[in-house]
Amino acid sequence: MFAKFSPLPPPVAHHGADMPSVALQHINVSYGDVRALDDITFQLPRGAQVAIVGPNGAGKSTLFNVIAGIVRPTGGRVDIYGTEPGGHICVGYVPQRNRIDWRFPVTVTDVVLMGRTRKIGLFRRAGQADHRAVQEALARVRMDALANRQIGELSGGQQQRVFLARALAQEAELLLLDEPLTGLDLPSQEILLQILEELRAQGITILVATHDLNQAAAYFSTVLLLNHRVIALGKPVEVLTAALLREAYGSQLHVVHGGVDPQQSEDALLVADSCCGAAALPPVAYSERPMLHSPSVEDVLEQVRS
């Protein structure tokens, strides 16, 4: 007679009282002879909402993988709420859309239920509480009406909201979103940004990697400027300055003249990033000030004249 096997859920790492949600100390990551992250040190309080910006290949995805415990740094220490990331189930990671096989035959509900895997435990079935968490997560991202739809049938914006729901079903207290707005139309971006604002109000720490500097300035209270090392961390007006952007983007940063008297005008900074097919992104800073929206030609000329 064999004893009935009833595996327990995995242990959950303890959250230290009054500890920062994320703390990195002298983190280094190398792939062979290539240094992806160099002496990264910063910490973020609980409930922080941070845009991580920098040129393509700056190490943003590697940074997320380190925080999530997917990549082990070659040096330094990572703490999530006071302990190493390995034992935590509170970290929700939404990777870039181009890294996901959308042809895989699963429904929206199936995808979101995957977020409960570590809470359920190995060889255990999802219970009523798990299915209720899935329903609540889908409702929070306005996707409950499409719960039985195949994931590959959705639009890009809907797919991103489903993966965000998976992180919410996981009951994540720290969200890592790797370029969630890339390739989405404006209405889809606005919906996603509104959801992130609602989560911020609930005290969830959110880190978003983005190439849109204007969006970073407009929607995030904190910006981390990264190019293998931390160039700057602080308020958008402190970080998105001409000098710091030149330091981070180097040859990808160009000066655009406004077409008026060059002796009296300020130059506009124009960032071109290879992630976007070498297309130029909107001008992002004038007179050491960040733009808070995507400017038109009239915006450019007005700021150059002022």
Write the layout of secondary structure elements.
Blueprint: E1 22-31, E2 34-44, E3 49-53, H1 60-68, E4 75-80, E5 91-94, H2 108-113, H3 117-120, H4 128-140, H5 156-169, E6 174-178, H6 186-201, E7 205-209, H7 213-219, E8 222-226, E9 230-234, H8 236-239, H9 242-249, E10 253-256, E11 268-271, E12 285-286, E13 289-290, H10 297-305
Parallel strand pairs: 3-7, 3-8, 5-6, 6-7
Antiparallel strand pairs: 1-2, 1-4, 8-9, 10-11, 11-12, 12-13
Describe the protein in words.
- The chain is α/β, with parallel strands linked by helices.
- It has two domains: 22-237, 3-Layer(aba) Sandwich (Rossmann fold); 242-305, no CATH class.
- 29% of the residues lie in helices and 22% in strands.
- The strands form three sheets. A six-stranded mixed beta sheet has the order 5-6-7-3-8-9, sandwiched between helices. Strands 10-11-12-13 form a four-stranded antiparallel beta sheet. The chain has a three-stranded antiparallel beta sheet with strand order 2-1-4, with helices on one face.
- Helix 4 (128-140) packs across helix 5 (156-169).
